[in-house]
Amino acid sequence: MKKVGAAIVIGAAALAAATSVSAASSAKTTTMSQNNIVQTAVAAGQFKTLVSLVKQAGLAGALSRPGPLTVFAPTDAAFAKVPKATLAALGRNKAQLKAVLLYHVVNGKVTAAQASMLTSAKTLEGASVPIRVSGTKVYVGGAQVVKADVKASNGVIHVINKVLIPPTR
User: Fold this and answer.
1) In 7-141, which residue ranges form alpha helices assigned H by DSSP?
2) 152, β-bridge pairs
3) What is the pLDDT along the chain (169 residues), one digit of tens a residue?
């Protein structure tokens, strides 16, 4: 895969939200940081659909290798908002499934603290995903970042509340 230089705007608001996590949650994040992105997602328990689709698309190995990578991870609740017919169609079209999943991944580890000046980032799918801050909320491609800076050994995960769909070309 070609190297894609990128940075993400997650903004100070997301940093503030991430640093307000309780001590118990911080301990869990520290423990999970020894795991790679896939292992961290599995351990979190709220990314069952994402992990299943990543495995189905043959991307689990790529997301387990040394990164660093930044992943915008939709929760199971986010996938529940996607029509079942759409998910079934993606399951039948591996290339399209890969494109959707890679639209959630940026090359490089970009934490909320580092992100402050950009309005988009190039994804591994090839298209750029727009980033915007509105008040105290951060949006990536229309999805809200609900938890930032979940550390993994090979990068960072930012939890989002919506599945991102790459633009049609």
Assistant:
1) 11-19, 23-32, 37-44, 48-56, 60-64, 76-80, 84-92, 94-102
2) 155
3) 333 333 333 332 332 233 223 223 333 444 445 899 999 999 999 999 999 999 999 999 999 998 899 999 999 999 999 999 998 998 899 999 999 999 999 999 877 766 556 688 899 999 999 988 887 788 899 999 999 999 999 999 999 999 999 998 6
